[in-house]
């Protein structure tokens, strides 16, 4: 099984979208690559913590290779805007791909090069090794499954 952390704006919709993909075994929302220990949603939203709202993804690479997972990811974000997705604005809503396996970096960079061909503006999605990750509060986990009419900037139907 493989792991990766993906940031694409509000983590509720990203988690719901990714969780529906064949080959995804587990998703969890949290905060990636910030500057403090044990961040809360409140701190991430209102203080300069450096965290991105993100989704931890555990997947079966035999059923869903990383390049295919990334194709799905690129389809739900605008990789050309900084610190924003949909109506959500702030550094916590930036796009990012945070890898745990250094061998994944080459595939991720190739994927970014391929998606760049579809845009006139520069793709600004962060690609970094995962430095830290903290699970978000329980009420954020599987939020759109618990609240089917809840807010989402991603078209899920």
What does this structure look like?
- It is a single chain.
- 27% of the residues lie in helices and 25% in strands.
- The protein is of the alpha+beta class.
- It has a single domain, classed as Peptide Methionine Sulfoxide Reductase, Chain A.
- The strands form 2 sheets. Strands 7-6-1-3-2-8 form a 6-stranded mixed β-sheet, with helices on one face. A two-stranded antiparallel sheet has the order 4-5.
- Helix 4 links the parallel strand 6 and strand 7.
- The longest helix has 13 residues.
- The two termini are 28 Å apart.
Give the secondary structure arrangement, pairings included:
Blueprint: E1 2-8, H1 11-19, E2 24-32, H2 41-46, E3 52-59, H3 66-75, E4 84-85, E5 88-89, E6 95-99, H4 104-116, E7 126-129, E8 133-135, H5 143-146
Parallel strand pairs: 6-7
Antiparallel strand pairs: 1-3, 1-6, 2-3, 2-8, 4-5
Helix pairs in contact: 3-4
Q: Distance between the terminal alpha carbons, to the nearest Å?
A: 28 Å
Which class in CATH terms? Answer: Alpha Beta
- Please tell me what the overall shape is: globular
> Based on the structure given, which CATH architecture is correct?
2-Layer Sandwich
How confident overall, as mean pLDDT?
96
N-to-C order of helices and strands: EHEHEHEEEHEEH
Strand order of the largest sheet: 7-6-1-3-2-8
Number of beta strands: 8
The helix content is: 25-40%
Cα-based radius of gyration, to the nearest Å: 14 Å
The number of helical segments is 5
The stretches of 5 or more residues where confidence is low (pLDDT under 50) are none
By CATH's scheme, which homologous superfamily applies? Peptide methionine sulphoxide reductase MsrA
Beta-strand percentage? 25-35%
């Amino acid at each position: 099984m493989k792991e990766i952390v993906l940031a694409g704006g509000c983590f509720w919709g990203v988690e719901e979208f990714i969780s529906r993909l064949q080959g995804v075994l587990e998703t969890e929302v949290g905060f990636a690559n910030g500057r403090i220990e044990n961040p809360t949603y409140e701190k991430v939203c209102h203080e300069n913590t450096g965290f991105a709202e993100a989704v931890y993804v555990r997947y079966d690479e035999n059923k869903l290779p990383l390049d295919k997972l990334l194709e799905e990811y690129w389809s739900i974000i605008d990789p050309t805007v900084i610190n924003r997705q949909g109506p959500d604005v702030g550094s916590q809503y930036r796009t990012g791909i945070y890898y745990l396996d250094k061998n994944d970096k080459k595939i991720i960079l190739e994927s970014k090069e391929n998606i760049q061909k579809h845009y006139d503006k520069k793709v600004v999605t962060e690609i970094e090794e995962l430095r830290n990750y903290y699970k978000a509060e329980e009420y954020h986990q599987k939020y759109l499954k618990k609240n089917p009419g809840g807010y989402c900037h991603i078209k899920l139907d």
